[in-house]
Amino acid sequence: MGWDSKTIIWGDLGESFWRRYAELSYYQRRQFLLKYGLQYGDVPKCRKCKAVFHHCYCNDEQHKAIIAAHKAEYKKPFSEKLRHSEELVAKVLEEHKGEKIYLAYSGGIDSECCVRLFQDAIIDGRVTLITSDTLVDFPETRAKWVELEQELGVKITFARPDPGVSYKTITRCKDLPVYARAGIDKEKRRPTELCCEGLKKKNMRKLEKGATVLILGIRGTENHNRRLKTIRYGDYFFAKSHKQWHVYPIAYWTIEDVWEFQKLRGFSYNRLYDKTNCGKKGFYLLPNGEYYQIRTGCWPCPQSIDGGYLIWLKEYFPKFYDAMVNKLGLRDHVIWAHVQAVMGNLLSKQTEICGAFDSLASKPRKKRLEVIAQ
């Protein structure tokens, strides 16, 4: 137990109730909350660190030391991070000589950096490139796959959906994937999970099966879950559930480190990152002054709409934008689903671009929720 009971705001349900919750696994906790009609936001928090109580380590000096060491990794000069990554590459190739090593390549800048770190091993056949072709990838991403094959003289092994399975067939039956994959409400998450499962995950699992080592371009600074994963496992570990070794060569790199490496080595990258209005590779300046970080996933996926995706898409891919908003029914599904998440200027601008819900966007938050409830 890392938390201090005196600093936790236990609420009406009391400490004993929430201790039962803390003893459950990740998936059991979600079911526990659903059973009692609760949301993740109802879980008690610590007054000091503001974290939910089972993620609070205010009373755990050992964990504090681990977190401090982890943060120090991110603050190191890039030259030290690069040296560590190159040493990790050499270690992996030495320890798994003659074994099946796969590198998951998406066409994005993170996996591109991994390719360049393992480039010699890829060319001589010690490492195999694999990728998921969901059939709804951006043209620039598909062009990057071809370009890399020609440059390195290798063939990428593709994982594709089963015959008859496509984004259109999945969403026609199960709705658009507008909710986060890790949300509390299972029914809302289901379309997203089914879409990712049918187009990508299921096929990649088949392809990865039998590999001794899987190399992934995961960075701890990307999001909270990946940061927790690197804290818990580090950048080189044996994944029991997958029965294979996982390697994160750029686990401690920041997005600035990634582009510094690209500049240092001078390799080509996915030209989607050049579709920017601010001169900053990989970023698009939104009307509210915030940045949308350009992603290279499936173009019809609306999960990042609350980050400004539609604004960027309308400017550079108007046909894709029209398909999402008008033909796929995005106007009804996504805007309404995310109206609580998107606030202020971003909501006003985004709905203005969609040509709908202007009156809703101009209302105070309380009024918006009343309209939704009706």
Notes on the protein architecture:
This protein has 374 residues and is α/β, with parallel strands linked by helices. It has 4 domains: 3-73, no CATH class; 76-271, HUPs (Rossmann fold, 3-Layer(aba) Sandwich); 282-296 and 304-322, no CATH class; 331-373. 49% of the residues lie in helices and 8% in strands. The chain has 17 helices and 8 strands. A 6-stranded mixed β-sheet has the order 3-2-1-4-6-5. The protein has a two-stranded antiparallel sheet with strand order 7-8. α8 (167-174) packs antiparallel against α9 (186-208) and α12 (309-316) crosses α13 (318-327). The radius of gyration is 22 Å and the shape is globular.
Task: Put the structure in a nutshell.
This protein has 374 residues and is an alpha/beta fold. The longest helix has 23 residues, at 186-208. Helix 12 (309-316) crosses helix 13 (318-327).
CATH architecture of the largest domain: 3-Layer(aba) Sandwich
Average pLDDT metric: 81
**Which shape, going by the Cα principal axes?**
globular
Number of helices: 17
CATH topology assignment of the largest domain: Rossmann fold
As residue ranges, the low-confidence spans are 337-374
Query: Given the helix and strand composition, which structural class is it?
Result: alpha/beta
Number of domains: 4
Q: How can the largest sheet be summarized?
A: 6 strands, mixed
- Percentage of residues in helical conformation: 40-55%
Gyration radius, to the nearest Å?
22 Å
What's the total number of strands? 8
Q: Write down the secondary-structure element order.
A: HHHHEHHEHEHHEHEEHEEHHHHHH
CATH class of the largest domain: Alpha Beta
Strand content: 5-15%
Spatial ordering of strands, largest sheet: 3-2-1-4-6-5
* Distance between the first and last residues' Cα: 44 Å
Give the CATH H-level superfamily of the largest domain: HUPs
